User: Which sequence fits this backbone?
Protein backbone atom coordinates (compact mmCIF):
# COMPACT_ATOMS: atom_id res chain seq x y z
CA UNK A 1 0.00 0.00 0.00
CA UNK A 2 1.06 3.55 -0.61
CA UNK A 3 0.99 5.61 2.59
CA UNK A 4 0.05 9.27 2.35
CA UNK A 5 2.21 10.71 4.03
CA UNK A 6 5.23 9.48 5.98
CA UNK A 7 6.10 13.09 6.89
CA UNK A 8 3.17 13.11 9.32
CA UNK A 9 4.67 10.13 11.12
CA UNK A 10 8.13 11.69 11.18
CA UNK A 11 6.84 14.99 12.60
CA UNK A 12 5.00 13.08 15.31
CA UNK A 13 7.94 10.97 16.43
CA UNK A 14 10.14 14.05 16.53
CA UNK A 15 7.68 15.47 19.06
CA UNK A 16 7.12 12.10 20.83
CA UNK A 17 10.36 10.10 20.43
CA UNK A 18 8.95 7.07 22.26
CA UNK A 19 6.63 6.50 19.28
CA UNK A 20 9.38 6.39 16.63
CA UNK A 21 10.14 2.67 16.54
CA UNK A 22 6.52 1.59 16.61
CA UNK A 23 5.52 4.08 13.91
CA UNK A 24 8.42 2.94 11.70
CA UNK A 25 7.35 -0.66 12.21
CA UNK A 26 3.73 0.24 11.38
CA UNK A 27 4.82 2.11 8.24
CA UNK A 28 6.90 -0.78 6.94
CA UNK A 29 4.19 -3.33 7.67
CA UNK A 30 1.42 -1.36 5.95
CA UNK A 31 3.65 -0.32 3.03
CA UNK A 32 4.40 -3.97 2.28
CA UNK A 33 0.79 -5.12 2.66
CA UNK A 34 -1.94 -5.60 0.09
CA UNK A 35 -5.30 -5.27 1.84
CA UNK A 36 -8.68 -5.59 0.17
CA UNK A 37 -10.93 -5.02 3.21
CA UNK A 38 -10.97 -3.70 6.78
CA UNK A 39 -11.23 -7.29 8.01
CA UNK A 40 -7.83 -8.07 6.49
CA UNK A 41 -6.28 -5.02 8.16
CA UNK A 42 -7.69 -6.02 11.56
CA UNK A 43 -6.66 -9.67 11.13
CA UNK A 44 -3.02 -8.70 10.53
CA UNK A 45 -2.97 -5.85 13.06
CA UNK A 46 -4.51 -6.98 16.34
CA UNK A 47 -3.88 -3.53 17.91
CA UNK A 48 -6.42 -1.98 15.54
CA UNK A 49 -10.16 -1.59 15.11
CA UNK A 50 -12.53 -0.23 12.50
CA UNK A 51 -14.23 3.08 13.20
CA UNK A 52 -16.37 3.17 10.04
CA UNK A 53 -16.21 4.69 6.58
CA UNK A 54 -13.06 2.72 5.60
CA UNK A 55 -11.16 4.09 8.59
CA UNK A 56 -9.10 1.99 10.97
CA UNK A 57 -7.67 3.16 14.28
CA UNK A 58 -4.32 1.75 15.40
CA UNK A 59 -3.12 1.75 19.00
CA UNK A 60 0.45 2.99 19.17
CA UNK A 61 2.73 2.50 22.21
CA UNK A 62 0.24 0.48 24.23
CA UNK A 63 -2.66 2.83 23.43
CA UNK A 64 -0.75 5.96 24.50
CA UNK A 65 -1.19 7.30 20.96
CA UNK A 66 -3.81 6.73 18.29
CA UNK A 67 -3.45 6.64 14.52
CA UNK A 68 -6.49 6.82 12.23
CA UNK A 69 -5.99 5.74 8.64
CA UNK A 70 -8.42 5.98 5.72
CA UNK A 71 -7.94 3.06 3.35
CA UNK A 72 -8.75 3.11 -0.36
CA UNK A 73 -8.46 -0.60 -1.03
CA UNK A 74 -9.12 -0.35 -4.77
CA UNK A 75 -6.16 2.04 -5.16
CA UNK A 76 -4.00 0.45 -2.44
CA UNK A 77 -3.63 3.82 -0.69
CA UNK A 78 -3.59 4.53 3.04
CA UNK A 79 -4.24 8.14 4.08
CA UNK A 80 -3.15 9.20 7.56
CA UNK A 81 -6.11 11.17 8.87
CA UNK A 82 -5.13 11.61 12.52
CA UNK A 83 -2.15 10.92 14.74
CA UNK A 84 -2.20 12.10 18.31
CA UNK A 85 -2.43 11.30 21.97
CA UNK A 86 -5.25 9.22 23.34
CA UNK A 87 -6.62 12.36 25.00
CA UNK A 88 -6.70 14.19 21.64
CA UNK A 89 -8.36 11.16 20.06
CA UNK A 90 -11.10 11.21 22.70
CA UNK A 91 -11.97 14.78 21.65
CA UNK A 92 -12.77 13.85 18.03
CA UNK A 93 -16.45 14.53 17.38
CA UNK A 94 -16.99 12.89 13.97
CA UNK A 95 -14.47 10.07 13.76
CA UNK A 96 -16.07 8.47 10.68
CA UNK A 97 -15.38 11.59 8.62
CA UNK A 98 -12.02 12.72 9.93
Assistant:
Amino acid sequence: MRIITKGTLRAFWEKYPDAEQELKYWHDKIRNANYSSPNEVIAENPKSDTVGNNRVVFNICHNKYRLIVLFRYNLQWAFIRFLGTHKEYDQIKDIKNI
About this structure: The mean pLDDT is 95. The beta strands are 2-4, 48-52, 55-60, 65-72, 77-85. The chain has four helices and five strands. The first helix runs from residue 6 to 15.
